[in-house]
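Data availability excerpt. The first of two example chains:
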Amino acid sequence: MRISRKWLSQYMDVSAYSIQELADKITSAGLEVEGIEYLSQGTNLTIGYVESCENHPDSDHLHITKVNVGDEILDIVCGAPNVAAGQKVIVAKAGAKLPGGEIKKGVIRGQVSNGMICSLLELGVDPHMLNDEQKSGIEILDEDAPIGHDNPRAYLGLDDEILDIGLTPNRSDCLAAFSMALEAGAILKQDVKLPEFDGASHTGGPTTLKVTSTTDKCPLFLGKVVGSITIKESPKWMKELLLASGMNSINNVVDISNIVMLETGQPMHFYDMDAIPNHEITVKDGYEEGYTALDGVEYQLKPEDIVITNQNKPIGIAGVMGGDDSKILDTTRGLIIECASFDHVSIRNTARRLSLSTESSVRYQKGIEPLAAKKALDRAVQLLIEYADAKDLEETVVYGNPEYVPAKISCTLEDMNSRLGTDFTQEEVFEVFARLHFEPVYENGIYTVTIPSFRTDIEGKADLSEEVIRLLGYDRLPSTLPLMEMTEGKLDYKQKTIRTTRNFFCSQGLQDSITYTLISTEKKDNAILSCGDAIELSIPMSEERRWIRTSVLPSLIDVVSYNHARTIKDINVFEISDVASVQGAKTHFAFVLSGSLQQNRWTGYNLPSDFYTAKGLVDALLDNLGIVESRVTYKENKKDTTHFHPYRSAEVYVGKDLIGFVGQIHPVYGKAVSAKNVIMAEFDLDTIIEIKKSKIKYVPVSKFPGVSRDLAFVVDRNLPVEKIVNIIKKQGRVNKEMIIRGVEVFDIYQGEHVQPNEKSVALSVTFQSDTHTLKDDEVNTVFDNILKAIQKECNATLRS
């Protein structure tokens, strides 16, 4: 919000305050002044008359001028291409201080120069407010400019100071200059006198104007025909206020629509009456076509956009920008005024999609007070009559219900002091409510206030307390130390598990990654181990950030794809992140492996990033978390064969709980995401945390030697080796003691001497007892039982 000293001075006396003091007081009341700007700067300036202008003898672009500044004639060397005799100009005398530095007397190529003829750029005027001619040369003043006037900045209306106020989301009312003036008056304890215009639009004869809406996105529309106006230059005060707000003056009628919007916060639009000959306006949506707006650019309308139409043809993009075919021209003889309320979400979506952040769209998005449309129409009619010779007005046409009932809130002094921890008196609180125009009534110890229509942020007693403390000063709060219980700073179980998981992966050579939580529709549809139905943002930053992710892997795969595209093949990454869905939030971890996980070229050591490496990582991590290998089961992946290779991936269970997937990426999916042949996994860490962990038991190391036996079987190719291992372990008891201490698969062979539908599995079994040295007959008995069980249950053939 930009508001200037001159604007505030129209409504109250602020002469006692410097611009910095105003900024400090407004900031202390909760509206932070983010910056102070000056329309122009410069000292020791005057208005001069160029009596003569000759070319410099030693330069092809300099001029020697004699400038009459009233009390003397100065010789000034000027380099501006547009300087000429007979002009009235801005002169900076010797000693003048400008934004670019101090002006001094000097000699320029042998010619004395006693000052400088200035352009507005040299006075610090915003370049965006200047045309090309003003930027390239000196400023040429009107013929009636008084020679010797010692304040040319004031003559041009460029002596204003501007406060740039950062508004909190709940104070959109201060986007209106009238509301900001009332706020400043309350802060400064000044009487505020706003223009009187209530009911100014309640005039006019019978009308033929028809206004309606076919969409519920337009609950209110006020329309009025002004049959006759005069297009001319705006008054000086209006041009100065527009300039201070960052707007250029166009003509009196267009400027009135802009000044009313800035004053009341209500955007409005003036249509050329001749462009709507049948005097019919309908607000609609559902259009999908190109439309040329006021800026001359064609925009593509979508069905969700709100459109102002006439005879089923768009004449404006509601709340954003009017149309090129109905704009005000120098030939305009009459107006149709639009003052309406539109759905703020729809306006925001339209403005963002079209990249049209206009003053109107910003105000609609932030919210407009209920009576803003009525106030704006009254003020516009008043100004049109005064400055545009408005005549032949017709009665106002209303669509919707403009009725408004002000809210009333009651509270007690004890409530506020108890909430704030203060000792404010009844008189202090009453004065604050009066300054805020809350019309307070105090009876029987209860304040009853009537909330003005523009204070839509005041909803309850807590809001009243906030108003009191911010105006009386936060320094009135007593100083107290916070009362906090002594607590032990430590990690909870989930935090410990996350830290253990992160440290484990880092120790194995994987790199910790952080990817975006917000994802595209494509990534949402490719969720792996999804935690539920994805949540869509109502107003996403872009299509790439539309959904809150339910899975980590699609984002993590992008990291690998990005590195592969830059010839980095050994890329092994993991991520631990929260994921969220309509059903709730969870914590997942995922990893992606490619190339080599560990490598030492000197020793020739290489650990490939393959399925077995990934399985080993999972087993080792679960063991670190207290879940022993015997509780973990890898089953054929039948749940997700879209993203995982159907024959090179597995579902991972602990007991009956599915905790994740691990395996090679599906070739089709890998090609689509430019990450071929990578190994990936995603796990539900919350499910792992909820699993009951095994207690750690300490047992002495056996004192007796162990015995190893190797055996090899030919079995059906599709038989899981895990089944063979489990059978072996079941046969390992001697006198109730488990003597099988380890089963290791050290070879699987398919090829020559083995049928195509079979495979050879070689295992090494370790036997050991804690009570005695095993005898050959004990080992042989168990070994024979193993052979018989495998041959029977697996239809296996012992290889010789």
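And the second chain:
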Amino acid sequence: MTDQVKLLEFVNKVSMTKMGSKNGVTENDPRFKLLEKVVTEEMAEVALALEYRVHLNADAISVKCKKSVERTRDLLWDLATAGVATVKSENGEDTFWYETWVPGIFEMVVNHKENVSKYPQIGQAFDDYGLLRNPIAAGNFPVGLGLMRVIPIQSSIDASSRKASSEEVSKYIEEARVLSVSDCSCRTSREELNQGCGHLKEDMCIQLGDAAEYYIRTGRAREVTKEEAYEIIRKAERDGLMHSIPNTEGDGHTHAICNCCGCGCYALRAAGMYNNPDMMRSNFVSTIDETKCVGCGECVEVCPTNAIKLGHKLCVSGEVGVPPRVDFPHDTEWGPDKWNPDYRINRKETLDTGTSPCKTECPAHISIPGYIKLASQGRFVEALEMIKKDNPFPAVCGRICPALCESACTRNGLDDSVAIDDIKKFIAELDLNTDKRYIPEIKKNYDKKIAVIGSGPSGLTCAYYLAVEGYKVTVFEKEKELGGMLRYGIPAFRLQKDVIMAEIDVLREIGVEFVTGVEVGIDQTIPALRENGFEAFYVSIGAQKGRKISVEGGDATNVLTGVDFLRSTSLGQFDAPIGKTVVIGGGNVAIDVARTALRLKNEGVRMYCLESRDTMPALQDEVHEALEEGVHIENGYGPKRILVRDGKAYAIEFMKCLSTVDEHNQFKPVFDENDCITVEADHILLSVGQQIHWGHLFDGLDVELNPNQTIKVDAQTLQSTVMDIFAGGDAATGPKYAIDAIAHGKEASISIHRFVNRGQSLVYGRNNNFFVSIDKDNVDYGGYDQVSRERVYTLHVDNLENSFVDSRGVLTEEQIKNETMRCLSCGVSVVDEFMCVGCGACTTRCKFEAITMEKKYDAYGVDFPDLKPLIVKNVLKRKVRIVRKKLKKKFLGNN
């Protein structure tokens, strides 16, 4: 038994229970734990003299608690400071009262910054109270009577659909005599439990009137103007948050506006974890017009309850909408079997039957259907903004992307894929050629320094998104010029260097700093950077070192790796005649090497690879271009030995490769050593793989490497075995495409943002990128005509020698109109109406007016003293519904 008897008595008073009774609050209850460390017995004696929402001055309270007025006043102020009592100045003197537990005392106690940090049990108590009360509340609170309630984003609801201005955020701001902004109490609690979701607590909740006065006087908040309050609301909506209000003061009255997220808010946990959205839903639900929706998925990302997912609208069978529900909290016993305890880590972006293949197969999951539709409407800046949300380098990718989206395009089953890459290139080209480039809004201003090591696509992407978030980012590059493998590993006829620099210019504009000619590990070290204030590191070094082959003569001076050859050519260091050139390898790098060799003084370029023409790892478009330019490709050969004279190779002997596959359907070469050919060569260029050269980067650090010498990282968070070091791109995966590296860069920026902020989890509330493609064999193409794909004009170059100009053109605006119309818009967003809480966040992301908020309910809150009889009435009705449902089910089962 606790020795804080008076405190326990006060806790029971607020809870309207009798101490010591069956339903009485004990010292193990989270309500007691909340106050245990911050309320003394003497303070509790005064607290017992307070009344619920009855404003009493110190004189009246001193009589009740039998203490002097002076001592009573001091203890009342202690109670107010702690968050137990509310204080208001009335007629020149302070009056005091107490509020409900939630919303009320819990939030006020948690928002005492020093106490919540000093006593971890305060944050834990807030969490535990929700876990205690939600199972009891499930199904028993009808719509409109929950203690907190969603209020729709004002722009999402048409004026004709509102019953009253109480459904408008602006009403509460305009009517408030004073406004303040404080930390979010839910996120504060989550932070103390190391369960933060990346949505930080600062400047989140707006108090109104008496609550604002109390919060300002007790140091919980700062006063703001109406204009500042609206700006806080705007930024919250920009960041995908929604609004809720305390709902215990009657219709049209509240004391706060909260900017909430489904992954942090304890009130929204009723919907997310307990599948009981009636507890706080608004009167509205989202409705999607399938004819306008293109399935871009922007709305899915901001839905706080995962009520919206991506589906399809072309398949002749299979799940299109949300499966019908049979059980609901209001007519079913709602126990743990109905809950979703992992709701913060198991979000799904698509229905199991899939959605648009282009968005699914893109490693960065760019909203391809969305930007194609915007481009079709001539909204090119908005299209660029949508692309850059997931890929900051569309001009680069428009030139070098493998276009996995096109390979997956549903239209392939009808005629030919949509020219997605060319559309993206057109959009990006407009931005490159305008006087006013698109510059993203910087969200905040964090006084935190982040180091990015390597200026390739992954590192630059991470830097971009961290800078947009508001961090001070420095990119360290050992070479004199920026770009990494984009600059030194891709020939200029595929990617002009001025395009790379134009994309990097945007990073400079948003504050990213670049340090070139510095190799971290030699000129600078990670420990030294830590001492200099850098709080996290993203290692994004590319696979810049080529692999040799273990054959006789492989160390001859004129046997070079392909990546070394490309680097030398890029730097202008390879200007001698290359003569007869043999390229070994069948991948995209080998193609680049061969086409580059063609542009030097040569006597023929021949490629030899193990695979057949159809199974070459290089993209077929790349193979076609190489053949057109004059590269001779010999398939089915592997090197046996290199013939050397005076230290230089003069020929190479190949064995015939008999292509086969192993039991895992993997390519497994088998050679016929009796079937050999000898090929003369002045240079032999090896493109048989790449590796990473770590140098001294990790000296003295416990960074664990994989057997292939990539960095061992968590697959989702990209965190290495050293907590402040993250890695992505080639450094984590080995050689892959630039778009894969870009996808890693963005994910790393999300992890680093969370890592450098106290109490944030790297996984809670994170998008899981759970995308599934539709079954294209099940698509109904009826009603669609075959339409030829628009083609880019390519300038024919008669003499390739020293011609490193990109001869590929860009689609015209007229071609863009035609090509974008070919998109089948095979995806669509689908709403689970039951799980939708009517916040309207989805409408802020939709660019096509496909989402509207429809009024389904006509329920409004009541004053707290009037709540209990309404709940009791509903509980009785619910019991009847449950019994009836069970009897009906039993009857149907017997028949």
